[in-house]
Amino acid sequence: MHKLALAALLFTAGLPAGAAAPPARIIHTNDILGEIEPCGCSINRLGGMARLERLIQLQPGVRLDAGDLFFSSSSIAEPLQAQARTQALALAKALKLTATKVLVPGERDFSMGVSFYQRLVRESGATAIAANLEAREGNSGSWKPLFPASTTLVLRTQAGAPMRIAILGLVGGASSGVNLPPGLRALEPVDVAQRMVPSLKKTSDRVIVLSHQGLDQDRRLAREVPGIDFVIGAHSQSLLEKPVIEESTSIHQASSRNQWVGLIELEQPEKSRLVALGTDLDAPQGPMTRLLERTRLKLQKEAEKARKATDLAAARVERAEANARQTPAKCAECHERQFAFWQKTLQGRRTIDCQQCHLPVPDHPFAVGSTHAPVQQSPARAFTNVACPRDGSSP
Prior knowledge:
Elements: E1 8-10, E2 25-29, H1 49-58, E3 62-65, H2 81-97, E4 100-103, H3 114-124, E5 127-128, E6 133-136, E7 143-145, E8 150-156, E9 162-171, E10 184-186, H4 189-202, E11 206-212, H5 215-224, E12 230-232, E13 244-246, E14 249-252, E15 260-265, E16 273-276, H6 287-325, H7 329-332, H8 336-343, H9 346-350, H10 379-383, E17 387-388, E18 392-393
Parallel strand pairs: 1-8, 2-3, 3-4, 4-5, 9-11, 11-12, 12-14
Antiparallel strand pairs: 2-15, 6-7, 6-10, 8-9, 13-14, 15-16, 17-18
Helix pairs in contact: 2-3, 2-6
């Protein structure tokens, strides 16, 4: 296993000099799935990054996210990719505005490739961690860690004393339903945690596992790896209004789509809870609302562009199919000699469609997807070496 990577970060919440430190609090989300706006529900419209920002202003703490953050699917259709990129980049900027500190990736975060995810992490200002996630090095067959294994945050308690929080990142593998893209693999999370947690425990006051593998696997992790104080999970999109206690570990998860946010009170864990991002958290105009307004306008333009592209593609297919239905009369416009021969054949007597035997070349006007208008073409161009199956070769 590669060396333990630790990065100490001092969290002060931007308090003015002399102000009392906030309680040591973790603010966690999971499976946001690229959502930046409230849900489209007819009633009780929860969610939205502006409301999350407002919650953090009212309840300061350290922001963590457990993955499947930027995209709603592991595979994004080509006409939707521009919109997905725009929304993901806006979400990265929103993460920066909410001072998000640590991320662990989920499989959907790699929908647009590993390099694009790394760009999103850089633009968010957060640190991505994953102790058991490895990437293949070219064609060499060797593997190397993709991100640091862990990070350490130094918070302040209500009494003003430092509290060191070690955060270990873990990603599930295929056995937990986390299907990583080719070129990435996840080592067994329990094995990795068993090697690393004891060292983290010695150098910190609390050990948190930021996990993307689902609730069942998180419970197994808690049973088999002593020393973990909290697991912040994802992937199963579980709505845990109260934490699940397994051995001495408290397991937390906050549903999906940024509609619920978890608050973990590190000094008083019994007060940990979920908060719904409802209308009571609607925010006044500010940097976040302006970011969302700009993103909304850009997404509308890209959606219109994608719609036009889809309509054009559908029209091409429809035209090609319409052309095909008009054969053989349409074929005769360019292929008079072949048409005269064809009329004498068995196919001609049965009025079989030309394209049952003759397939147009890609730039032929009848080819699906062709942008050409029907034009005179050399008979040899479209029908070279095509034989009639029953009546001999065409002339």
